[in-house]
């Protein structure tokens, strides 16, 4: 992704700055809790295409977090 292009991108809903997640290939708006996908290097700035982030994701956005985290923690036997 082009850094200058990224800097120009804002959320279409709130016009806020987006956070680029290089690993997930997403542009995230923490205000709306949406993650816009980047498909083949092209950001898809459509709210209907965006992924709704978990509340958990909105709070913790440490880089290097694997996108496909499992929530299977039923009993630690
Ligand atoms: Zn937004």
UniProtKB/TrEMBL annotation:
SUPFAM superfamilies: Trm112p-like. Residues 52-77 are annotated as: Disordered. GO terms for cellular component: cytosol. InterPro entries: Trm112-like. Belongs to the UPF0434 family. This is UPF0434 protein CE457_11035. It comes from Vreelandella boliviensis LC1.
């Amino acid at each position: 992704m082009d850094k200058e292009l990224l800097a120009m991108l804002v959320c279409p809903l709130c016009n806020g700055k987006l956070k680029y997640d290089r690993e997930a290939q997403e542009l995230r708006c923490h205000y709306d809790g949406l993650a816009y996908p980047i498909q083949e290097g092209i950001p898809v700035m459509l709210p209907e295409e965006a992924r709704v982030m978990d509340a958990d994701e909105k709070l913790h956005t440490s880089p290097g977090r694997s996108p496909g985290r499992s929530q299977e923690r039923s009993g630690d036997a």
